Amino acid sequence: MTTTTALHLAQARAFHALHHNGSVLTLANAWDVASARLVEQAGGAAVATTSAGVAWSLGAADGDRLARDRALDLIGRVVAAVDVPVSADIESGFGSDPAGVAETIQGVLAAGAVGVNIEDACYRTSSPLRPVEDQTRRIAAARAVADNAGIPLYVNARIDTYLRQVGEPDTRIAATIERARAYLAAGASGVFVPGVVDPDTISALVAAIPAPVNIMAGPGAPSVAELGKLGVARVSVGSAIAQAAYGVVRRATRELLSTGGYGELAGALDYGEVNALLAHDGSDTNR
């Protein structure tokens, strides 16, 4: 086993353990090398990317519109820039079929990431979600590639029943649980249910899903501590931090152009501090 493979395996095992140690794995999602370095510097136990933030930063819309090679290149650069485990949001797998998802996972592993989010949303058809059978085949393909590589990739199966408001509200818990159990049987490691913030619903999902549950939090959602009490194992914020950063761009620009003021720039990081983040951008072979 090479040193690189041994490190990859150790990080994959460590990332799995972060979901089972009795505390909430809290992930501030990054979208480029600088944001990933800031997350690590602030004490993040791992870095998880946001597909929306990544796509936007590369000039594409979210929702299966970013080219696979550009996404994989970004993942590799983030992995090279930080020392903590990296989980990559790969949207629905950057492939039209299970074979395409398998190719993406090969690229993810080659980049050094130890986890992925795979969503069941469907953007190119009239149906908002993929059929369960289709999605289970895609997850199984991802698991097979990781198993063949000997890396325990953490496959976080994202279920978009709530985020995309699929079906009548009173049917969504049962539909989510059905999908969760099918995806776990296909090889998923955990389940991600974005779009749900109601404590009773979260509690019901946690009780019925026999794996770590990831909730997407933000303004209006229970705090991380409250989610932990509900049994949630993982909390992430999706594209919210990237959106907040773009919000600063708009507010600062409008202020500059309208009043000539600079108040929105208060609280900005020091130039030298940001520049130093990129001293190790993957080109330093000693890192």
Structural description of this entry:
The chain has 287 residues and is an alpha/beta fold. It has one domain (3-238): Alpha-Beta Barrel (TIM Barrel). It is built from eleven helices and eight strands. The protein has helices at residues 3-17, 33-41, 51-57, 68-81, 98-111, 132-149, 172-186, 199-208, 224-229, 240-258, 271-277; strands spanning 25-27, 47-48, 86-89, 115-119, 154-158, 190-192, 213-216, 234-236. It has an eight-stranded parallel sheet. Helix 4 runs parallel beside helix 5 (98-111), helix 5 (98-111) packs parallel to helix 6 (132-149) and helix 6 packs parallel to helix 7. It is globular, with a radius of gyration of 19 Å.
